[in-house]
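User: ok so my PI wants both of these folded by tonight, can you help

Assistant: No problem, let's get them done. Here's the first:
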Amino acid sequence: MVDFQRRDTHRDESEASTGTDEKQATEEHDHHAHDVASVGAAVVTISSSRTLDADPSGDAIRDLLEADGHRVVTREVIRDDRDRIQATVNQLVDRRDVDVVVTTGGTGVTPDDVTVEAVGPLFDKHLPGFGELFRRRSAESVGTKVLATRATAGVVDAVPVFVLPGSVDAVELGVDELLLPEVSHLVGLAGRDH
């Protein structure tokens, strides 16, 4: 049986380590060459009961982004209306100061939860790993209730769009643990120069 974890390459271990480290450093540098230092974010809360003055999930998204050195360039609260949600996201991705869109709300299974249906068709590229990882991490705290969330992400006209549930806990998980570590990289890769 072959041990693929440890292979004898007939090289001196220090030589192999140095070569690997240099190669990895070069690949890492090239891979992140397009990362951006700070992104302009649009935050959209989808709710029939919240307002800008009473929007704890939108506040949490704003606070987390700004604490990480990013800018929230606009915030909106809109009702659970498919056409309105779709039109809003379309308008936001067309803005030159918006590099990423983060929505909160409307990802459940009630009849008025239509954010995924509104935003999903706009995706030029889907980012399925976001929803998969979000559900895996959420399951640690909410168990099988995670089946009811349809958090998702994709790219619309070179702008990453993240669709999160409406609870503060879900937003904190999605933004702090998943979006922030990758947003500069994703925005840089998606780029505005097609």
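One down. Here's the second:
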Amino acid sequence: MLPTDLAPVITHCRPRQIQYMRWGLIPAFINDPASISPMFNAKAETLAELRSFEDLILTSRCLILNRGYYEHERQGDEQICWKISPAQEYFFYKAGLWTAWHNPQTNEIIESHTMITCDPKETAVSKVHNRMPVILNKAQRRLWMNPSASKLQLLQLLQPCDASTYSITEFSRKPVKVPKSKNR
């Protein structure tokens, strides 16, 4: 899945339906989406402080379904691509927020989402990247999708998942391209 692609999500207002939304949140209050960079990720640590996300935690939560993701790490002269996959389930269920942006000129509505990320702390993911998606287990998903959940309950879910939730495998390895020096 690449930024701005459509991705499968389940919203807390339609919990029994998979919808496809654009990855890269467009805040509903924006007049022109071209005036901002799409918001692909939202940091759990600052979620409650940013205007674009502060109300969405209570009104517009979603689960982003995903079979895995990739992280890249440079080790010496090599670029290693790691695949992080679900260990116990077919999908990861990542915590996200969504919104619908209305184009006043065309009446077009674009539903978009952002993925919530957290500090991986001392997990296996921390060895390859400094952020990871918030991946929710079944009990956490029930609370995340509960319309009666409090803001405090929801914010407490935004932690790294247990290491038994995922596996990390090497996907590819290739030499780092050295930029060609320009002759002067």
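The first helix runs from residue 56 to 59. The helical segments are 56-59, 138-145, 151-156. Good luck tonight!
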